[in-house]
Amino acid sequence: MQAGTTVDTIIQTRNVSVYYGEKRAVSNINMDIERNSVTAFIGPSGCGKSTLLRSLNRMNDLVPNCRVTGSIVVDGIEVNSDKINIEGLRQVVGMVFQRANPFFKSIYENIAFAPRFHGMRDKRELDEVVERSLRKAALWDEVKDRLHESALSLSGGQQQRLCIARAIAMQPTILLLDEPASALDPISTMKIEELVLELKEEYTIVIVTHNLHQAARISDKTAFFLMGELVEMNDTSKIFTAPENKKTEDYISGRFG
Amino acid sequence: MSRRSEGSTIASNRIIADHTPEVGERKSAIDRKLLTYNKRQFTENVTGRFIAMACAGLLVVVVLSITYFIASKGLSTFLINGVSLGEFLTGVKWDPEGEPAVYGVLPFILGSFLVTLLAALIAAPLGIGAAIFMTEIFPGFGKKVLKPVIELLVGIPSVVYGYVGLTLLVPFIREQFDVLGFSLLAGGLVLALMILPTITSVATDAIEAVPQDLRNASLALGATRWQTIWNVVLHSALPGCLTAVVLGMARAFGEALAVQMVIGNTTKLPGGLLDPISTLTSGITLNMGNTIQGTPYNNALWSMALLLLLMSFVFIMILRILGRKKLVNK
Known about the structure:
- The structure holds two protein chains of two kinds.
- Chain A is α/β, with parallel strands linked by helices.
- Chain A has a single domain, classed as 3-Layer(aba) Sandwich (Rossmann fold), CATH 3.40.50.
- Helices cover 35% and strands 26% of the residues of chain A.
- Chain A contains ten helices and ten strands.
- Chain A has a six-stranded mixed beta sheet with strand order 6-7-8-3-9-10, with helices on both faces.
- The radius of gyration of chain A is 18 Å and the shape is globular.
- Chain A starts with 8 loop residues before the first strand and ends in a 5-residue tail after the last helix.
- Chain B is mostly helical.
- Chain B has a two-stranded antiparallel sheet.
- At the A-B interface, helix 2, helix 3 and helix 6 of A face helix 9 and helix 10 of B.
């Protein structure tokens, strides 16, 4: 961050803690996420990175006994509040999960799903959205002749890109990716990574990953979590070359985790 | 040369090759495991396979002989007694003791189908709705209270359902509509109540089998809970829910006692919901006591049984086709 340039922060968390019943899974997270950047969350299993991610689009609301405290501001609006339209929030903050989870419908219907119930009825308009989303997800050329076949006929990597296209189709501002490539082979993983770098132009991306090389390759900022706390967050190049915290250094050099 | 001694030859060769006695011992233990076989395990394997095959074989024999028996009895109406198949299936007059005897079973066939359809129409939305409630809306209460209650309903003998229908439903319909009370409507309602637990529990299983991932995907796309249930959960569970309905219909089609107690058993073509009717099953149970083995009358009842059997084959076929479609439909 150069002195003098204004930073366009799109997500700002202040003192965010997440509790599962009495147990605190995430403690007092303060972080700023910049617009049109890729932020990677890294850390050992159970460190709370996915939990924090799921707080950003209120998916934790679905977990019984889960409580999120603190302030999460998305594009200037406090979203950790009862007044927020949660369905609306999730349209702004899209999410892609660890395991590809296409609906048991055709490729076309998977993409048209969200636009349809957000009010789009016109067939031509839907066709356009489907094509545009699939192109952005770099899947169009592979599936354009079989749009009406079952989404389950696609390979694992294609299914995951379909899920990204499905999220793009509702025109979000932010995309949360929860270990999107952890179940994929290296070539599919590479395609997802290339995709993330392209999508950065239009969307703000937050990605949780166990793969440190992946974080180093694709992210601008990296946040390292340990036992529910944010240990260090900085430019990715700094985190991987000159971490300020000893624990971060130990983790990225493979001494634990 | 036996397997055992062959094994020891190899083992002894290896002992010479290895330098330390410990290594040699370990090697011969491996040889013993790899080169000899356990006689007891072998016998158990053979006996186990034999028992399993015998059980399966017995089942096949039973099914085949029942089918053969019913078919030979049922077909003799046409082959021996010379009743025409067309008249049997489409005839509307049932008078096996008349001069000449007339065997038209269309009223029974229509009665069976109508009462089954009516029951399915009533029970399917209720059962699937209850399944949604138990899995999606109120899982805690659903699993702890509703599920055991519904399982209890399955265990109630059909005669009890019939009795309840006879004492409550038939008088109610009689008073409300100023008719006899014994009717298609009463039969459909009693059957709906009977097949409701079947539909509910099978549909519940189908809905529970929908992966949680899909619900998350839908909710993360900004869908409401109801949109998720309707567009994703029910859509994915559709083949299972259809299976539930068909299973319920198969049960309704075959039910004799409860239906017979409330439908009035008149062998006329059903004209409306409030008309008394007959079904294939009620026709058989009511008439079989009056007939003598081998008479055309008796054989005609067997032909009706054959029709029932064929219908249950059809139901099973539908279930098979639905089962194949499960979860991979477009």
